[in-house]
Amino acid sequence: MPTPSNAYVNTTSCSFTPSGGSLTNIKGIKDIAFDPQVETIHEGGDGDFFDTLAGSYKAAWKVTIQVNRPLMLAALTLGASGSLTWVTNDSRNAATTGGGGLTYTLSNAIYGGTPVNAPHRQFATGTHTFTSYSSDGSTSPLSSVAL
Q: Scanning 44, 60, 94, 120, which has its CA 20 to 30 A from the CA of 83?
């Protein structure tokens, strides 16, 4: 088996499982973006030109999934909470165990809807949006494990 490259390409599986509901596979993935949306505060004093204090005070994960099958989650209720999971493969080894790919899980994921774009003579696309929250205020709801 080739050595993992640690360069990632293609998401091979993605699913959302609402609390108390059934797993829904998300197909036709074109792009997944995840952003911790960290907010910071900066301060200075005593005539400082540059800030002399800075710190982060808030983070809220946001995951967007661009797809070419935008109505796959149409049956979900807006605001449904559950678990979002996806696999991103290492560019050399695909999804094989020990191949360098990563499985991500966003706990306490909240489905925010899917705006759809359906231009003339082109395939429709949509962007599923999920946000999340921490159960205890200090543990990140996004985790990853190597395959």
A: 94
Domains of the chain: 8-41+55-146 (2.30.110)
- C-alpha–C-alpha distance, residues 128 and 111, integer Å: 8
In the block, tokens 């489905």 appear at 111
Report the C-alpha gap between 47 and 117 in whole angstroms.
51
Q: Which residues contact 109 (CB under 8 A, 6 or more apart)?
A: 16, 63, 81, 82, 83, 84, 130, 131, 132, 141
Residue 34 sits at the vertex; the CA angle it makes with 109 and 69, to the nearest 5 degrees, is: 75
Question: From CA 76, how far away is CA 122, in angstroms rounded?
Answer: 25
pLDDT, tens digit (0-9, with 9 covering 90-100), for 32-58:
999 999 999 999 999 999 999 999 999
Distance CA 101, CA 120 (A): 37
Distance CA 147, CA 142 (A): 16
Provide the token pair at 68. Answer: 């070419």
What is the pTM assigned to this prediction?
A: 0.84
